[in-house]
Amino acid sequence: MDSVLCIVKDPALTWQQKVVALARAAENSIDVLNVSPALRELVRAGIVCDLGEGHAPYRPRYVAPDYDRFMCRGSSFLDLPPPESLDEALNSLLILYKHVPSITTFPVYIGNLDRLIAPFVQDDAPTYQAIKRFLLHIDRTLPDSFCHGNLGPEDTLAGRMVLRAQRELQTAVPNLTLKVGADTSDAFALAAIETALVTAKPSFANDAMFLRDFGVDYAIVSCYNGLPIGGGSYTLTRLNLGRLAARAKNYEEFLASTLPQAVQQMLWYMDERVRFLVEESSFFEGSFLVREGLLDKEKFTAMFGLVGLAECVNALRGSPLLQHDRFGHHSGADAMGLEIIAEVKRLVGEHSNRHLRFSAGHYLLHAQVGIDTDSDTSPGCRIPIGEEPELYEHLAQSAPFHAFFPSGIGDVFALEATVKNNPKFVLDVVRGAFKHGLRYFSAYASDSDVVRITGYLVKKSDIEQLALGHQVRNGAVALGKGAAENQGVLRRKLHA
Amino acid sequence: MLGYVRRIVPFSSVDGPGNRTAVFMQGCNFRCFYCHNPETQQVGDCSNPLEGVMAMDHFEVVAAVLKYRDFTQGVTLSGGECTVQLDFLLALCKDLQASNIEVFVDTNGHLAPRDFRQLCPYVDKFIFDVKATRIAEHTALTGHSPELVLENLAWAIAGKQLYEVRTVVVPDVLPNRVTVADTSRLISVDAAIRYKLIKFRARGVGPRFGALRTPDDQYMAGLQALALSLGVANCIIV
Hints:
The structure holds two protein chains of two kinds.
Chain A: H1 2-9, H2 15-27, H3 37-44, E1 48-49, E2 62-64, H4 67-73, H5 86-97, H6 113-117, H7 125-141, E3 148-151, H8 157-169, E4 175-180, H9 186-199, E5 203-206, H10 207-214, E6 218-221, E7 225-228, E8 231-240, H11 241-245, H12 251-280, H13 283-286, H14 288-291, E9 300-307, H15 309-316, H16 331-349, E10 364-367, H17 391-402, E11 411-415, H18 423-435, E12 440-445, E13 450-452, E14 457-459, H19 460-467, H20 477-487, E15 494-495
Parallel strand pairs in A: 3-4, 4-5, 8-9, 9-10, 11-12, 11-15
Antiparallel strand pairs in A: 1-8, 2-8, 5-12, 6-7, 13-14
Chain B: E1 2-12, E2 20-25, E3 54-57, H1 58-67, E4 74-78, H2 86-98, E5 102-107, H3 113-119, E6 125-129, H4 135-142, H5 147-158, E7 162-169, H6 176-187, E8 194-199, H7 217-229, E9 234-237
Parallel strand pairs in B: 2-4, 4-5, 5-6, 6-7, 7-8, 8-9
Antiparallel strand pairs in B: 1-2, 1-3
Helix pairs in contact in B: 1-2, 6-7
């Protein structure tokens, strides 16, 4: 119970952050999952990690409610009729958000905002002020960087107003993604880029790719996770390929036994988490979101996460000292990386779990962005910070990996502030990258206070406050501070 | 057609609109003290190969540009001073145009008007450096009178082929207000032309000039206000 007392006494936690931490401590005080000794050993070695999901899953990790349905039908449990005005729409959404569970206790998806409010939006100042207040309300009451809204792909007045408000507010929450496709006008995309160069959001999702993988009802959730609307992901566990590689004598052994054994252990562990959640936790029997059709078991899947491909490849190639021999720079190293990911996809694809109904019984691959305490591990398939090549080479290297990860992969690019004079530069890069198979693109300007840590946003000024021991509203600032200290995320190569 | 290229930058955000592949050619006919790429000044040829300079056939340059075309709005041919290699430049522009690549040429404008006009049909837009408009200062800075520059600039403006003019602002040394005022009057006839005022920065210039000061924000804002007051539609400071 020492940890409980530590939480209670921690002066750097807000009351709300303490409540969340205490709930986690309570959940972790019981042991209900049937976990093999082999898996426990992999967890102890840092090879498999449940990413703080807890010992007794009682809600899906990521929930993407069908907000469009809510807008059409209202909610009988919340006693809310369908909204008939902008005020009612925004108010109803703010009410519903407080009832959407997730791993963070805050909603990780708040809807395709422009589509939800478009029917009520007029081109006048009161409408704009209401949207701005709505976004401010979200930042102040859902203080978590994994809270994610979507925009697009169509150009709408509502979308433009959301972007303008974000440029003015410059808050870290909500995270935002613009779906960029054939329907996205250049003018709308440029407004989004101008916003991103001020406040590090939105990121840009390759609409054509997500449409192929999910159909039209997809959401970008939490960091950059592609998931079906009306469902979500039961769990996300990750495999640290870099640490796993250290256990293999050579590449042949890695492919033949080290990797398949670890993948199998992790799949069984994920199965156990899913089983407990779906069959024992009562979530699907008890939640009004399910009862009212905002969530549907048919639309759930789960995510098999990977980190540390760069470290894995470099280790298996004898840890070359020269950069041009390493992952991200050497064609042989990159080819090995692709071969490893293809093998993981094959192994994961051979496994089936009847609860993963959206994805025909299969787990979806996810390039996990890392956690704050990682110090020897690059996110997903990313090139390590400090070794990034020039922008074109970076995109060309990265794009082939993106096809393997429907439930999320992406790169983050830090740009010189002078790019603000030429936002079309970013649009050209995004359109080209998407044409070449990149799934997801994030950028921020070097002089921005809001910065993208790995997949989520944090204010640099908040990190400084927390470093001084002061409370900050956003619980994710602690994660950003760790990532800045351990992974150097604020030292990315600058592109101009 | 063989030419001399210092480097090809696949993605550039500062050489015209959108993302552009920038081709920096070797050789310049000016010797500005504030040049940040003095290594591109010397003219090389087969009998005088320069370290770091690539001798390339024009179709090799086109192939390099095409590799990046999905990611770019076009190409900017720059230098050095790209018009120093006029025949190579012409061959390159013609082939790029035939490949449907948008071609910008970044030039100091110091070439015979006949040659400049020969180039114009194969170029979408020009970026001009106007270093000074008065004869004395321009000659002192570059070794040449600004006459050809201003004549070619006027031709580009009349032909709606001018995208941007750049002036490097050096306090105490150059008549910055005169240059900005004269240039602004010339380009104000077309609202599409952007005026970029560039702060002199001592870093990277020769040791004789390292002591010169960088203009402060207030000084730059004054020049920007001057340009705007004279009808320039878009004036930015970098």
